[in-house]
Structures are given as structure tokens and as C-alpha cells.
Amino acid sequence: xxxxxxxxxxxxxxGGVGIVAYMLTKEFTKIGHEVVLATPAKAPxxxxxxxxxxxxxxxxxxKDPLYSIQYYIFNHRKIEKxxxxxKPDIVLTHGPLAVIAKTIRGIPVISVIHGTYANxxxxxxxxxxxxxxxxxxxxxxxxxxxxxxxxxxxxxxLSNVYLVAVSKNTRRELIEAGIPPNKVFSILNGVxxxxxxxxxxxxxxxxxxxxxxxxxxxxxLLHVNPGPRKGTHxxxxxxxxxxxxxxxxxxxxxxxxxGPRTFREYVKEIIRCLGLEENVxxxxxxxxxxxxxxxxxxxxxxxxxxxxxxxxxxxESLACGTPVVATDVGGNPEYLTLAxxxxxxxxxxxxxxxxxxxxxxxxxxxxxWLINRYSVVSWNxxxxxxxxxxxxxxxx
Length: 396
What we know:
Order of helices and strands: EHEHEHEEHHEHEHEHEHEHEHEHEHH
Strand content: 15-25%
CATH architecture of the largest domain: 3-Layer(aba) Sandwich
Shape: globular
Mean pLDDT: 94
Strand order of the largest sheet: 3-2-1-4-5-6-7
CATH class of the largest domain: Alpha Beta
Largest sheet: 7 strands, parallel
Structural class: alpha/beta
Number of strands: 13
Distance between the termini: 19 Å
Number of helices: 14
Radius of gyration: 21 Å
CATH superfamily of the largest domain: Glycogen Phosphorylase B
């Protein structure tokens, strides 16, 4: 197999985007391709050992929607020099950072699009966020979405630029925003199956109880990365309906920060008003390496999002053998269909879908689901698809 030299321009190595950037770099080098990394973030030590060169870029001081613009202003001249010096076969970057392609000629530039906010723009006015936080949140999402789409339409006109959406839904959203279909491809995110794998469920529950000093009920639900866009408040309402079926014999574990202060206060208040303090346990931020135990301790993972790109939670849970109830946004339909769990998909057409979610959770808990781990996309599979795409683009 022909080895490529890839210049990977990465934004950072934390959160979902950062995990994707990390895993792509790791897997490219693992199968023999040369990777030059350019990033304003501190690269993990293990990546530095595997790449052939590492360049530090200047970090933007602004957040979205102006992050990518400032990134370009700060770094485009240095990236030009890196391209001339390293002579890569292809440049890989993320989201609107693809605007850097304006200064790159004769080399294919691929940008991984992790989501579009298209669905969030549709639903965000209904979120229980209040006061100034509501103004900041809606303004930020609205302007980020429209500026990003404007940048994508602009760079897609360049002959050497291509976009890789992390789900078919994301590709559709890009095309609907005016990106030519022949410039957008779709490749799902993967999962590290060496990290996310099944373990004894009773043992996992014991570890969770001891590690977080709590007592789990017989049925355990897991919700990771909560927030208004993730439908956490709808999940809490659905869980209240489950009390009529299971009484108090279930636990909902919420992992991650709850988002804006007013939203956090709203969620805590409805938990109190609905009498769910005994059932809902908020664990706060947890390191990614501890998530496999939580997935294994859960009987069901719930992803009730209004907007997604290629959510990592879904394949991570499936790789641990735990079924997922999810809305039909982002990559969820593809992940669940591949795993034979299409029955657990929820069609998102009403803002408050708590009744439907409650019924789906009940169905998920009542059946024994056997998940074939080979149906869950690994990062090795993902990089293989990227390599196939690189071959196609380099022969155009």
C-alpha cells in the first residue's frame, strides 16, 4: 500500500473533536503513513512519538463564531511555510479551519465536519435557558452556524477542497446549506475497541458504587455530556414517567457538566419537583478513560439530542455491549442500524418528546439485546475509508 505524507492541522485534543483528531493521527501512523502535526494545542506525548514532525501554531483568543477566522489570521503564513517545507501529499483539518486552504495550492485539502448546528438552530429557542444566557447562547449558535456555512460555501468553490461529514445526516445538512454534493463525503466516526469493550456488568456496577459512593438500583440508565442541546431536561421528564412502571427501582447517571447556569438550575428544580432526587445522580465531569466502566454498568445509554454530528457516545456504548436509545440525528441512525437496534431510534419531530422517549427506554430495558461488536465501526475501519478517499482524490 502506498504511504501518504499527511499534514494534519488540528484545533485541539479535548472533547469530541479532539478525540477524533487524536485517533485519526494515531491510526494513520499505525498503518504506516507519515503525519506532520500542526496545532496550537499541546500534543499528547504518545502522538509526538509517532509523528514525523510537530509544529506549534498560535492559539486563537476568541471563541466561535470567530475562532476559525482568528486561527487563519494568526497562522496562515506559518502554515504556508510548513506546506512548502514538508511537501505533504494531502492536508487534513477540521471544520471551518479549512479556510486555510485559501493559501494552499495544488494539494488536496480535506476538512472533517463534525456537525452543522442546523437542527440546533431549529430547536434552540425552545430550550429552558433564561435571561442573558439565553441571548448569548442563541446568538452564538445562530451566528456560528451561518458563518460556518458561508465559509464552507466559499472554500467548496476551491478546486482542491473537500469536506468529510461525520454522518449522512451532516452531509445532507451541508448540501441543504448550499455545498455541492460532489464536494461532500460521509465517513462515520469510530471507537477504540481496545478501550471500550464489554466487562462483567455486576463487577462494573460494583466499581461505580464504590468509586462514586452511591447505591445503584436494579435498572441503570446512563446519559453522557448533558446540556440543552443534548435533551437532558426531556430525559428527566421521561424518567419521571418511568416511575409509574418501575417505581423507584432505577438509577439515571448523568455524566458531565450540565451547561448554562439557568439550564442547570432548571434541571435540578424539575428533578426536585418530580421527586427524582433518589433516582437521578449527577456525577459531573469524568475522564474519558473511566467511561468504559460506566457504559458497562448501565443497562441502557440514552442519547436524546436535538443536534449531533458523529456522536462518540453511541458507538462507545455499543462497543461495550450496552444498547442505546437515541434520537435520529447525526450519526445515531447509522450506528444503531448497523448494530441491529433500529427499533430504539426516536424520530425527532416535536420539541417535547418525553412520552416517546419514556416508551423507548421501557422497550430498551425489557428486551435482551445482543450486539455484534463487529457491527460497531472501529477507528481502524474509519482510517481505511479515509485512505480510500485520499486515493480517489489524488487520482482526480
